[in-house]
Specification:
Blueprint lengths: L1 H28 L9 H40 L6 H6 L4 H14 L3 H9 L12 H4 L3 H12 L8 H28 L2 H13 L1 H4 L9 H19 L6 H21 L3 H17 L5 H21 L4 H4 L2 H15 L8 H30 L5 H10 L14 H4 L8 H19 L4 H17 L1 H10 L5 H32 L7 H13 L5 E3 L2 H11 L2 E2 L8 H10 L8 H10 L4 E5 H4 L10 H8 L22 H4 L10 E6 L3 E6 L4
Parallel strand pairs: 1-2, 1-3
Antiparallel strand pairs: 3-5, 4-5
Helix pairs in contact: 2-8, 2-9, 4-5, 4-7, 4-25, 8-9, 8-11, 8-21, 9-21, 9-23, 11-12, 11-20, 12-14, 13-14, 13-16, 13-20, 14-16, 16-17, 20-21, 22-23, 24-25
Length: about 675
């Protein structure tokens, strides 16, 4: 079998050389004796010259169209231009409201210096604690945007909230353009980029959620990540001019830095990226020098972000830094790894991989012990439960680029990188829905590349013995055009219906709650409740919180678990003691959590609390044998009907959704 494969490859080499020679001779035959080229070739050269400006114009148009599209959907869904300010702020649900609140704080500060001081010495986000927001959270984008809004002469005709959301919608244009360019670079035709953009737009539900979760960190970061991938794809092109290579490396660095600065999960995305580079470099499918530069850029970018985040320990103790440092050290020790016979190279490769893995574990564990780092332990627990790396890019023969170019399907460095990159992010998408938006957008790129690839169609035609350059050209362009027409026919009516559907924001209970808090509580009041609700409380009222949705801190996770005892089976004395320890003045109970029915038994918040406390869950069904019945009823239910609870809690507000209780002060 092995001999047959090698014979086939050699045979194809011969075919390819012959075809190139015949094509070259045919072109020579078409040259007139006087040296002039026929008009058909002149037209081809003209189209090549026009292709770049035409393709670039289409890319910009589609990017702007996407931006306008998602902005219109957002307006139509909420009637954002007509609702009150408090309703606009409430529409920034969960952690979105928390991030936007820092933009609002910066604008409300008397000066930029005071605003920065307030973020660095924040005592409102977590009660009884002063934390550095710039160190704990990725909010430099809010800082930059607030400063930009102050210095630009736009205050008289553009509200701060519109400046904020239009910036995010504008980044969607950057995102689509970057995907378009990546697909264009891979396939060699901007028709592929057009198809990638079409797929991104028509599969919007699976590619982005920016229109209803605007301030999420991923909506800031993913456009820069797409720019980085486009730049890396261009970097892997052979025979780049030195100036072009330097400018491309600069683009990779800037996009990597901005991506890292705007999302707390940057290190995990770039770790997968580093794994892709490591796998392909070990298989000798990427130029080693360029890969080394990418490792250095990753390290430099994330270390610079660490400095800006006041030497954030979660970044310094990241697996990404340990992995990249290990690779660079292993390369320094183990030189000429790709030289020698096949058996010798396999042995060196095995030793290299083993050395990198061992060094990574040693450096990472050593760093975490020095920093006493436990902030990211919840993420690794999640990944251990959900995600495992599988084998990729396996090949019986490790071929150099010169030999690969002679095969029937040319897997260029850019295509190889994009393939493995997409596969690994697909594995990550299986673990959590949030990562789906990262994977599907790049699937649009790779699918469009495959449909417009000359190599793919050439392989198909050769497999059925129908290959000619003319048929290749027809299929390569005709199939994508038919696909574009089909997509337009299928999705255009639905998109028009979606754009014509008008809704309005309506959440009177939450609006009533926020207005009551602003009017009836002290500005220094401490409020306890669910994470998602308290983010809105901070944004709309400016009151002090006991906990919030930014979960990358061990102490905060423990604090949230304690606050959530309001939904567990605990005595009023215990709940009062817990809340008092955080300086709480008011606690908000939500019926949607207390009587939750959306999730099945065992997945509801109250069930998780019961299990953690060793109590039997409510309802019919099995329980673990070590669980016992609680001595007390569920706090959030009993407080509404048991008069004895008034010794500790006094109800001060109530509507159909929320119940607010004030903690009674005891001497």
């Amino acid at each position: 079998m092995k001999i047959d494969i090698m014979t086939t490859i050699r045979h194809r080499k011969g075919i390819k050389v012959t075809e190139v020679t015949e094509e070259h001779l045919s072109q020579e035959k078409n040259v007139k004796p006087d040296g002039k080229v026929p008009s058909v070739y002149t037209g081809g050269k003209l189209w090549k010259r026009l292709s770049l400006p035409v393709g670039g114009t289409v890319a910009i148009f589609l990017g702007l169209l996407t931006s306008v599209y998602v902005a219109t959907l957002h307006e139509n869904d909420l009637w954002f231009s007509n609702i009150k300010e408090v309703e606009r702020e409430i529409s920034f649900r969960t952690e979105c409201g928390l991030y936007y609140s820092y933009y609002k704080d910066m604008l409300q500060a008397t000066s930029i210096q005071q605003g920065l001081h307030g973020l660095i010495h924040d005592n409102k986000t977590e009660s009884l604690r002063t934390i550095n927001i710039l160190e704990r959270m990725n909010v430099y984008q809010e800082v930059f945007l607030s400063i930009l809004y102050r210095i630009l002469p736009i205050q008289n005709y553009l509200e701060p909230v519109y400046f904020y959301i239009y910036t995010l919608f504008g980044l969607q244009a950057v995102y689509v353009i970057a995907l378009y360019v990546t697909s264009w670079l891979l396939s060699g035709t901007w028709l592929s980029g057009l198809l990638a953009a079409f797929w991104y737009i028509t599969n919007r539900i699976d590619t982005t959620r920016v229109e209803f979760t605007i301030p999420l960190r991923e909506n800031w970061a993913l456009p820069f990540f797409a720019v980085q991938i486009a730049a890396i794809t261009y970097l892997f092109r052979p025979h780049l001019q030195p100036l072009h290579e330097k400018l491309t490396l600069l683009a990779v660095f800037l996009s990597t830095f901005l991506f890292s600065l705007t999302w707390q999960f940057n290190q995990f995305m770039m770790l997968i990226q580093a794994l892709v580079l490591f796998i392909l470099d070990c298989l000798d499918m990427l130029p080693t020098t360029k890969v080394t530069w990418l490792y250095i850029i990753q390290l430099t970018g994330i270390l610079l972000v660490s400095v800006l985040q006041f030497f954030n320990s979660m970044i310094l103790g990241s697996l990404l830094i340990s992995f990249n440092v290990s690779i660079l050290l292993a390369r320094t020790v183990q030189k000429n790894m790709k030289m020698g016979c096949l058996l010798n190279r396999v042995g060196k490769l095995f030793l290299h991989v083993l050395m990198v893995l061992c060094l990574t574990l040693i450096i990472n564990n050593f760093t975490k012990k020095i920093l006493n780092l436990e902030s990211d332990e919840h993420i690794f627990k999640f990944l251990k439960a959900k995600f495992g790396f599988g084998a990729t890019s396996g090949s019986a023969n490790v071929l150099s680029m010169d030999k690969m170019e002679m095969c029937s399907i040319v897997l260029t460095p850019g295509a190889a990188y994009s393939l493995v990159h997409t596969v690994l992010f697909g594995c990550l998408a299986l673990s959590t829905m949030r990562m789906k938006y990262l994977w599907t957008s790049h699937m649009c790129v790779f699918a469009s590349f495959g449909l417009c690839s000359a190599e793919v169609w050439g392989f198909v035609l050769k497999s059925v013995r129908l290959y000619t350059p003319q048929r290749l050209c027809v299929l390569r362009y005709l199939i994508p055009i038919i696909t574009l027409l089909y997509l337009s026919y299928k999705f255009w009516p639905g998109m028009m219906d979606e754009l014509s559907e008008l809704r309005e924001f309506y959440d009177p209970d939450t609006v009533e709650l926020m207005n009551w808090i602003k009017s009836n509580t002290s500005k220094k009041a401490v409020i306890a409740g669910s994470m998602q609700l308290l983010a809105g409380v901070k944004l709309c009222t400016g009151r002090i919180l006991t906990n919030h949705p930014h979960y990358e801190d061990k102490d905060l996770r423990e604090r949230t678990k304690q606050v959530y005892q309001i939904y567990a089976k605990r005595s009023p004395e215990d709940v009062y003691s817990i809340l008092s320890s955080f300086g709480t003045n008011y606690v908000i109970l939500e019926d949607s959590i207390c009587y939750e029915r959306r999730h099945s038994r065992g997945c509801r918040l109250r069930d998780l609390l019961d299990i953690a406390n060793g109590h039997i869950m409510d309802g019919s069904g099995e329980n673990d044998p070590d669980l016992k019945a609680s001595l007390y009823p569920r706090f959030c239910e009993e407080i509404k009907k048991n008069v004895s609870y008034s010794t500790y809690f006094a109800r001060v507000f109530q509507n159909k959704t929320f119940h607010v209780y004030k903690l009674v002060k005891h001497k």
